[in-house]
Amino acid sequence: MQSIKAWFFVLLQFIVPKLLITKIIYRITRIEQNSFKNLLISKFINLFQINTQEVKKSIPADFASLNEFFIRELNSDARIISTSPKSIVSPADGKISALGNITKNQILQAKNYYYTLEELIGDPTSAIEEFYNGNFSTIYLAPYNYHRVHIPIDAKLIKMDYVPGNLFSVNEATASRIPKLFIRNERLICHFKAGNTKMIVIFVGALNVGSISTPWTGEINPRNNGKIVKLHLNQTVPSTLKKGDLLGWFNMGSTVITLFSKDSCQWDQRLKLGRDIKMGDIIGSLSI
Q1: Residues 103 and 33 occupy one common structural domain
Q2: DSSP class of residue 130?
Q3: pLDDT per residue rounded down to tens, the chain (288 residues)
Q4: Within this chain, do residues 58 and 170 fall inside the same structural domain, yes or no?
Q5: Residues involved in catalysis
Q6: pTM higher than 0.90, yes or no?
Q7: Among the three residues 20, 37, 70, which one is the final residue of a domain in this structure?
Q8: Same domain for 97 and 59?
């Protein structure tokens, strides 16, 4: 029965106007009428059992809309960031949906589904051969998760590219049933360098994700067609970052994919697929 429901959910996504639905959700979550937004925040907290003790601001008074609560900041001591110079930390709260080695240029999506580095990056001018036989991690953020994304290591931001695409859901039911899901969806590609290590952090958009925001670009709204956009970065925002510094946030749930260049890191062998992790948890270590 669960399998039938999952297939129905997947098939429905090929029919419904995903961009229109996302635009409607975008509008609703930004309504600032006091009693309405307070009701939405209260219902959201109860529905998803949000841990309100770790939220920095007062609820609901300090949040102008449901979206502001969705992208909430946490208390400074809510997440512990490893200070070890070699450690790699999780960029986000969520569930590990895939983790491992890149086989030449092939990345595991789920079960027997794979996609290529070239398809994921989407830019034929990007030199990505250094990531062949490297490492990848995929973290799924559910609606109840903390939705800010942070940098896993000390590194310098080199560039950001926006790849237009679709807005399929990225939950387990969809990821295990739609081939090449992550390259169908819109995504923000963030390139970093740390000494001899190259790293790419990818924000994957999804159904109901009204937009993706970063300190360097502001809000990036979804579009389902067009060419790759090489984003202009605000030069007043520092590009040299310390582990745990903010990279951006999803304005609803989605997925973060992190890539490391060949021979630059090792994943923690204790990590298992399906495990819930918190931003700042150690997920691996640098090799160089």
Answers
A1: no
A2: G
A3: 667 777 777 787 788 787 788 888 889 999 999 999 999 999 999 999 999 999 999 999 999 999 999 999 999 999 999 989 999 999 999 999 999 999 999 998 877 789 999 999 988 777 789 999 999 999 999 888 999 999 999 999 999 999 998 877 887 878 888 888 888 889 999 999 999 999 999 999 887 766 899 999 999 887 767 789 899 999 999 999 999 999 999 887 789 999 999 999 999 999 988 899 999 999 999 997
A4: no
A5: 93, 150, 254
A6: yes
A7: 70
A8: no
